[in-house]
């Protein structure tokens, strides 16, 4: 979420400690082990492990299923202690090791009819703050520390850019998770207030002149026509393409993040799409370091008839 290099946890491969599981593999291994033991004891020489009605096979199937559940529980336990894979309350406990807690986005109302439960920040956002926790330990005002404290200031902070146009002058650019991303004056004030403090106990280093401001919005729309392969599910393909490009525009809604034509083409070309005709935008969008690209509308239509595969 910040401009400095941080690890994208979602792209990490599954750790070696998490083993792939397959019931049939476990069952086959148990059958083979039992066959060896029976032969060694001179028992049941005519036993057929492929007979699904055999009582021993039924026992092995039950035991194999229990082993599968046990191994799955071990896999879950391994994932629970890793920041990249922990979720829910387990992630909350892991985050507490870094003095970071899940933020409340909306307090909810237990007296409402029906009652409204509180809304908390997502696992992904909490993970990103935990990644920045060690940055906050520095007293020299590094970029990561400013990002960490800005995200902690309010759960409405979606992204932060830290720039320094001149020595001792730091600008925090804020992107909001609400509306079109433009932060309200109250949100900017909240972030600014969180940085203040008496000498020695504030977030902002004593020698930094700090400014908190909104970024620059670059609006754009997406219009595309699709050539599809022959098939009865043309509307399903069109809808899938539209959903894919919608997800892409949401991911790119970050400060300093460009929206490229090749990225749009890749998002639009789902299974069943033969060719994409993209009319808007006509060029890559570069919002700049303190700006963001805001998609205002998406229109994806089918063009012409189908084509053979």
From TrEMBL:
Pfam families named in the record: Baseplate_J_C (PF26079), Baseplate_J_M (PF26078)
Domain (Baseplate J-like central): residue spans on this chain: 138-213
Domain Baseplate J-like C-terminal: 220-300
UniProt keywords, alphabetically: Plasmid
UniProt xrefs under InterPro entries: Baseplate_assembly_J_pred, Baseplate_J-like_C, Baseplate_J_M, Phage_Baseplate_Hub
GTP-binding found in the keyword field: no
The name this protein goes by in its record: Uncharacterized protein
């Amino acid at each position: 979420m910040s401009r400095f290099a941080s690890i994208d946890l979602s792209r990490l491969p599954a750790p070696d400690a998490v083993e792939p599981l397959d019931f049939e593999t476990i069952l086959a291994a148990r059958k083979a082990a039992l066959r060896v033991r029976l032969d060694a004891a001179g028992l049941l020489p005519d036993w057929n492990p492929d007979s699904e009605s055999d009582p021993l096979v039924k026992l092995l199937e039950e035991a194999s299923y229990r082993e599968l559940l046990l191994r799955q529980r071990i896999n879950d336990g391994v994932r629970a202690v890793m920041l990249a894979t922990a979720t829910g309350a387990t992630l909350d406990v892991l985050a507490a090791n870094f003095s970071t807690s899940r933020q409340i986005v909306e307090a909810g109302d237990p007296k409402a009819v029906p009652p409204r439960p509180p809304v908390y920040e997502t696992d992904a956002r909490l993970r990103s703050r935990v990644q920045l926790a060690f940055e906050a330990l520095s007293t020299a005002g590094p970029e990561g520390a400013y990002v960490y404290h800005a995200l902690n200031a309010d759960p409405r902070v979606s992204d932060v850019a830290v720039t320094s146009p001149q020595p001792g002058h730091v600008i925090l650019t804020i992107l909001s998770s609400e509306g079109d991303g433009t932060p309200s004056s109250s949100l900017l004030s909240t972030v600014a207030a969180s940085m203040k403090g008496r000498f020695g106990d504030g977030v902002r280093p004593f020698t930094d002149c700090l400014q908190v401001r909104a970024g620059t919005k670059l609006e754009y729309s997406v219009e595309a026509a699709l050539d599809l392969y022959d098939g009865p599910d043309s509307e399903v393909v069109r809808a899938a393409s539209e959903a894919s490009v919608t997800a892409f525009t949401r991911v790119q809604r970050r400060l300093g993040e460009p929206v490229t034509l090749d990225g749009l083409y890749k998002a639009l070309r789902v299974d069943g799409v033969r060719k994409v005709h993209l009319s808007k935008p006509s060029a890559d969008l570069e919002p700049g370091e303190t700006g963001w690209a805001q998609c205002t509308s998406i229109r994806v239509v089918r063009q012409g008839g189908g084509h053979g595969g």
